[in-house]
Every structure is written in C-alpha cells, then in structure tokens.
C-alpha cells in the first residue's frame, strides 16, 4: 500500500510539471528578485558557481533535452498525441531555461550563437503549436497529414539544438584555453585546467572540440614552463584524456609532445606524481586499441629513453597506482614496437617486474598483474627470456596467475582476471619451448591446473580465450613431458586437432569434471 501511495504522489508531481505554462515559467526565471543594483549583484554572485559547475548544469540540461527529443520521436511513431504534446511543452520549457541559465554566466556570446538561440526558440514554439493542434483534432486524415510536418519540425529542432550546444561548448573551451594561455596567475590557470579536465570526462566529442581549439598545444606550453611545475600532474592528466581521440593525437605530434614527455620522464627533479601522469599519457597514446598511432614517428626516436625511465619508475614506485600507470605504458609499448622487448631485456626489466609482483603493496590488483603478464608474454618471444624467467622464479608467478580470481565480482575485474589467466598460459606455452622452463612448469604442477582450466568452465569464467591459451600451453608441455598426463586427458585434450578439443571442452557439463 505504501509503494502505491509513493508512486501515485510521484506521478502526480510529474503531471503537475506538464500543467505549468512554459512561457510564464521562463518569464519568472528571467525576472530579478530585486530591482536595487546592489541586491541584484549580490543575487547574481550568490547563484554564480564556478565555470565547471555551470558547464555541468548546462550539459545535464542538454542531456535531458536530447533524451526528451528521442522519446518524442518514439511516441510520435505510436500516434500518442497527448504524450507528444505534453513532452513538447516540457522540451520547450527546458530549452528556454537552458538558454536563460547560460546567458547568466556566459561572456560575450557570438552573433551566431544569438541567431541559433532565436531559431531554436522559434522552432520550439512552432513545434508546440503543431502538437497542440493535433491534440485538439480527432480527424485521422488531418493527423496523418500533420505527422510528416511534425517529424520535419522535430528534426529541425534537434538540428538547431545540436548546433547551439556545439557553439556553446566550443566557446567555453575557447574561453578556458584563453585563460590558460594568457593568465600569469597560478590560481586562475589551475581552475581553468580543472574545468577543462571536467569537460574531457564528458565524452569523446568534447575531447575533439578541445583538441580542435588547440587544447593540446596550450597544455604542453604549461608543461614547458618551470613556474607551473606544481600544475604538471593535473595538466598531464588532462592531456591523457584529450589524447583518446585522433584529433588529440595529431595535435600532440604537432606540439612535439613526445619529446616533452620524454624530457619530463627523464628529469629526476620532477615529483613521482608528475612522472606517473606522464606515464599515463604514454599509456594512452600507445594503446593497442587505438587505430591511429601510426603517425607517432617521433615516438620511435625517443623510445629507448622513455622505456628506460618507465622501468625506473616501476622499480621505485611507492604505490600500486604509480606502478600500474608505468607498467601499463610499458605493456602498450611492447605491442607498439618489438624493439621495446629487446630494450627491456637489456634493462633487466624482467627481474624488476617479477620482484614487484612479490610486493603485495605494489602489485595489488588484477589490473597490475594484467600489465605485468602482458609484458612477460610479449617478451617471451625472445629466446633469452627463458633464463631470466628461471632466475626470477617467474614460472612460479605464472602458475599463481593461472589461479587468478576476482574477489569483488565486478565485471571489469573479472575481465582483467580472464586476461591474466589467458596471458599467463600464453607465456607458458611460448617459454616451454625451452626444456628448463618446461621442466620447472611440470614440477610446479602446471599440467593439472591447465587441465582443470580446460575441463571446468567456471574455473576460467566460461572464457573461450582462456581455454584456447590453456590448450596450447598443455600441448606444448605434453610434448616436453608426456608422462604428466593421464591417457583420457591425452586422448581428449592433446591428441585431437585443437578445434576438436576446444569444442569438446566448451560443450562439457560442470558435473563431468
């Protein structure tokens, strides 16, 4: 009974919003409470939040309008005219409120922006008038003929709205970048960078706007001025966010950003936080998931000193977060260029990474272990890696990684655990071409564990990629140590074609194990 009452009240309040006359609402919002100059200024200041807060409010309002427009299109398809009209009234009110709110904190809006504001308001009014006429008629033929006009008007409203939002966000990005470039004040620059970072968190589209307006170049200028050293971590974090889009990467290349990052990483006078954020930028721009890294030609020129600095950062990391950023950058670089693996081998990186894994305060999450095992897997193609693995007790670590399980059940963590299991099996398969590694793996009971992962879907979280990797590792070890398998395991998991064993394991019931 209580639930019914609550729902009824909520529904009544929602309906009440729709009964409000939007023109009266907007006029009330536009009127000052006091006509006295001092009081009015006080009111403006008290309601004036930071640029970041104002933009968040604007983006929230824009999201609401965008969602409402989508819903109107859905209701229109179903000919639910009453709902279409009530939602149109609501959109009209939201649009006017958004324009009024923005006008209270913007400075010098462009003429083009004023034009789009007028076009949008006029088109919204026209839209509301159209839908009101539809509500007032019951003639199906008239409604059918008006439907195409309403659809066309809805499309135009959405178009004007999108263009207005684009103009507003572009102007705000320009204002923030102007503050960063022209201000000598530490406080103003810090606030502008903070607001810019908040914008980057709103999605790739905003990152593209910032990049196109010269955001990457402006931020790298900050990173080249010693007077702003205390702002380097914040600035680099913002750069990492912008460089998730292709426009940001192109700007980074133009700003000679790789050289700047290399200078920061190799300068021991910088704080660990600065080095960590520089590593985060490197991790972002070398991500194997990006398809537009081929133009980073300058990266190869600075790769050796960058890799050296990152290995040093891994070795001296004071926290798990710092290690994660540095190891993630290294892991991505090993995908980016095979020469990186040879550099890592020369720097004794294998020993450093294996030692870090024994410190639970440093390598404390599946995400960190995922980076480490990625580096090991990519380095394992080199013949010299086998001896390094044996010396650093690496086979034991790989065996432990085959048992990686999520403690929280979080989907991202579960996926990281799957990657750890898969890559540890891949690394074992590659390294087991060396008899010494294969012998160590057999002695540590890797074969029973690999069999368990193949036969038990829950052990591998039903992951096919883990299954394939484990079958490959098992087959490699079976060649080196055929006595370690029972005949049924050999007949089902080793002797058939890989695809047949895979199909057999994926169709197994849990009770079979």
Automatic annotation (TrEMBL):
Residues 4-48 form the Protein inscuteable homologue LGN-binding domain. This is INSC protein. SMART domains: ARM. One of its GO terms (cellular component) is apical cortex. One of its GO terms (biological process) is establishment of mitotic spindle orientation. The gene is Insc. It comes from the Eukaryota. It comes from Tricholaema leucomelas (pied barbet). Gene3D superfamilies: Inscuteable LGN-binding domain (6.20.200.10), Leucine-rich Repeat Variant (1.25.10.10). InterPro entries: ARM-like (IPR011989), ARM-type_fold (IPR016024), Armadillo (IPR000225), Insc_C (IPR045789), INSC_LBD (IPR031938), INSC_LBD_sf (IPR038205), Inscuteable (IPR039921). Residues 61-513 form the Protein inscuteable homologue C-terminal domain. It holds the Pfam family INSC_LBD. One of its GO terms (molecular function) is cytoskeletal anchor activity. Transmembrane segments: none annotated.
């Amino acid at each position: 009974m209580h639930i019914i009452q609550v729902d009824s009240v909520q529904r009544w309040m929602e309906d009440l919003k729709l009964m409000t006359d939007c023109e009266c609402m907007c006029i009330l919002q536009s009127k000052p409470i006091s006509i006295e100059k001092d009081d009015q200024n006080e009111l403006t200041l008290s309601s004036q939040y930071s640029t970041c807060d104002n933009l968040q409010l604007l983006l929230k309002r824009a999201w609401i309008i965008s969602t409402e427009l989508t819903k109107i299109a859905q209701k229109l398809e179903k000919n639910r005219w009453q709902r279409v009209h009530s939602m149109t009234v609501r959109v009209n009110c939201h649009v006017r409120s958004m324009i009024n709110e923005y006008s209270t904190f913007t400075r010098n809006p462009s003429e083009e922006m004023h034009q789009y504001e007028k076009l949008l308001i006029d088109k919204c009014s026209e839209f509301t008038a159209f839908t009101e006429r539809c509500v007032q008629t019951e003639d199906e033929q008239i409604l059918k003929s008006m439907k195409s006009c309403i659809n066309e008007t809805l499309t135009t409203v959405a178009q004007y709205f999108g263009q207005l939002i684009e103009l507003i966000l572009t102007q705000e990005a320009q204002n923030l970048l102007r503050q960063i470039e022209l201000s000598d004040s530490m406080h103003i620059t810090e606030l502008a960078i903070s607001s810019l970072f908040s914008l980057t968190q709103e999605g790739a589209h905003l990152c593209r706007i910032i990049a196109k307006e010269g955001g990457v170049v402006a931020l790298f200028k900050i990173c080249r001025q010693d007077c702003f050293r205390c702002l380097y971590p914040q600035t680099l974090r913002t750069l990492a966010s912008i460089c998730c889009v292709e426009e940001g990467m192109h700007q980074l290349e133009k700003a000679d950003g790789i050289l700047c990052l290399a200078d920061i990483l190799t300068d021991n006078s910088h704080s660990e936080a600065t080095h960590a954020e520089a590593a985060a930028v490197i991790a972002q721009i070398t991500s194997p998931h990006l398809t537009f890294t081929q133009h980073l030609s300058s990266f190869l020129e600075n790769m050796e000193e960058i890799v050296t600095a990152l290995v040093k950062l891994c070795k001296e990391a004071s926290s798990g977060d710092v290690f994660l950023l540095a190891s993630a950058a290294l892991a991505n670089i090993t995908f980016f260029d095979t020469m990186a693996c040879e550099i890592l081998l020369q720097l004794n990186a294998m020993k450093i990474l294996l030692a870090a894994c024994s410190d639970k305060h440093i390598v404390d999450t599946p995400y960190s272990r995922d980076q480490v095992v990625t580096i090991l897997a990519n380095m394992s193609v080199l013949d010299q890696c086998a001896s390094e693995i044996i010396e650093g007790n690496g086979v034991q670590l790989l065996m432990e990684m085959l048992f990686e399980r999520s403690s929280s059940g979080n989907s991202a963590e579960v996926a990281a655990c799957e990657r750890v299991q898969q890559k540890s099996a891949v690394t074992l398969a590659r390294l087991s071409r060396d008899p010494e590694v294969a012998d160590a793996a057999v002695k540590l009971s890797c074969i029973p564990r690999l069999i368990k992962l193949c036969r038990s879907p829950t052990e591998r979280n039903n992951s096919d990629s883990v299954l394939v990797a484990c079958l490959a590792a098992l087959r490699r070890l079976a060649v080196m140590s055929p006595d370690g398998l029972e005949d049924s395991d050999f007949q089902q998991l080793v002797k058939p074609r890989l695809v047949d064993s895979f199909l057999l394991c994926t169709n197994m019931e849990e009770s079979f194990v």
